[in-house]
């Protein structure tokens, strides 16, 4: 039982642990998200290994640098032929356009999405620490729209913003939502969490689930619970 809209966050320190997790829990072939922790340790070879086992891949490196650097980095990431890559919308319009240009120069299939506001950031952090005024949701919707105008195919956002982003940017604009928690699991450092069912009902196209599955007593059961929740009409 595999669901194309649930990506498991493979937040492991190395390939050996990630591979053990996938094999032990019979999760080979499910869509996965590879983040900085695993990629910085293993490099592109981890992508080849996952592709050899038919995993769809969201490579979550959240690029944020000057436009030329991002363009060249994206050209290299495009060669890995993963399904989704991302940048921070806060990098600005030139940077998002450069990311898209770099990606298109090596691969036309990979989707580029932009991080709006990290799901670990709440209003107090946004207003008082980052000095960005306004509500989290209105900023997320603004960044989503602005990223779309500069070539992004979608956004990483909180479930609580997905519906408004769809209304503003159109139903085809991809919403990828982390901060998902199965009932009874730990919230950890996420400040804006939701269940899979709530996420689906509120406009999320792709759900990223990490610790609710990877740290569950029985990860395979936790994955299946999430899949079932999405299947219930
Ligand atoms: O364990 P948990 O389900 O909280 O994992 C969420 C994953 O999604 C982590 O890998 C985290 O880096 C990522 N993520 C996030 N918020 C974003 C973008 C990515 O939590 N805005």
Name the hetero compounds present.
Answer: cytidine-5'-monophosphate
CATH class: Alpha Beta
Instruction: Note the main sheet.
Output: 8 strands, parallel, barrel
| CATH 4th-level superfamily | Aldolase class I
Total discrete domains: 1
Percent of residues in beta strands: 15-25%
Topology order in helix (H) and strand (E) letters: EHEHHEHEHEHHEHEHEHH
* C-alpha termini separation: 17 Å
The fold-level CATH name is TIM Barrel
Mean pLDDT over the full residue set = 95
Per CATH, the architecture is Alpha-Beta Barrel
Summarize this entry quickly.
The protein has 233 residues and is α/β, with parallel strands linked by helices. The protein contains eleven helices and eight strands.
Protein model, in words:
- The chain is of the alpha/beta class and 233 residues long.
- The chain has a single domain, classed as TIM Barrel (Alpha-Beta Barrel), CATH 3.20.20.70.
- It contains eleven helices and eight strands.
- An eight-stranded parallel beta barrel has the order 1-2-3-4-5-6-7-8, surrounded by six helices.
- α4 (67-78) packs parallel to α5 (93-106).
- The radius of gyration is 17 Å and the shape is globular.
- The model has no long low-confidence stretch (mean pLDDT 95).
- Cytidine-5'-monophosphate is lined by residues 9, 11, 35, 60, 115, 118-119, 156, 178-180, 188, 190, 208-212.
Labels describing this entry:
globular; TIM Barrel; single chain; 11 helices; 233 residues; binds cytidine-5'-monophosphate; eight-stranded parallel barrel; alpha/beta
List the helices and strands and how they pair.
Layout: E1 6-9, H1 15-24, E2 32-35, H2 36-42, H3 45-52, E3 57-63, H4 67-78, E4 84-88, H5 93-106, E5 111-115, H6 123-129, H7 136-149, E6 154-156, H8 159-169, E7 174-177, H9 196-201, E8 206-209, H10 211-214, H11 219-231
Parallel strand pairs: 1-2, 1-8, 2-3, 3-4, 4-5, 5-6, 6-7, 7-8
Cytidine-5'-monophosphate is lined by residues 9, 11, 35, 60, 115, 118-119, 156, 178-180, 188, 190, 208-212.
């Amino acid at each position: 039982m595999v669901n194309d809209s649930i990506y498991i966050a493979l937040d492991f320190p190395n390939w050996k642990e990630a591979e053990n997790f996938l094999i032990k829990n019979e999760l080979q072939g499910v869509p996965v998200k590879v983040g900085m922790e695993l990629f910085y340790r293993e490099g592109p070879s981890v992508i080849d290994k996952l592709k050899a086992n038919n995993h769809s891949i969201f490579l979550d490196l959240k690029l944020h640098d000057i436009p030329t650097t991002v363009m060249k980095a994206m050209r290299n990431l495009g060669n890995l032929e993963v399904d989704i890559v991302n940048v921070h919308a806060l990098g600005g319009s030139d940077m998002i356009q450069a990311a898209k240009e770099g990606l298109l120069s090596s691969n036309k299939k990979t989707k580029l999405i932009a991080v709006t506001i990290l799901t670990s950031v709440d209003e107090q952090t946004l207003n008082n620490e980052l000095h960005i005024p306004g509500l989290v949701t209105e900023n997320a919707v603004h960044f989503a729209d602005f990223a779309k105008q500069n070539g992004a195919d979608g956004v990483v956002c909180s479930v609580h913003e997905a519906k408004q982003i769809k209304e503003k940017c159109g139903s085809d604009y991809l919403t990828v939502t982390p901060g998902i928690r199965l009932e009874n699991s730990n919230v950890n450092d996420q400040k804006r969490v939701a269940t899979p069912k709530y996420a689906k009902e509120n406009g999320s196209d792709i759900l990223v689930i990490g610790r609710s599955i990877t740290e569950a007593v029985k990860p395979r059961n936790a994955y299946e619970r999430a899949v079932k929740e999405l299947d219930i009409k």
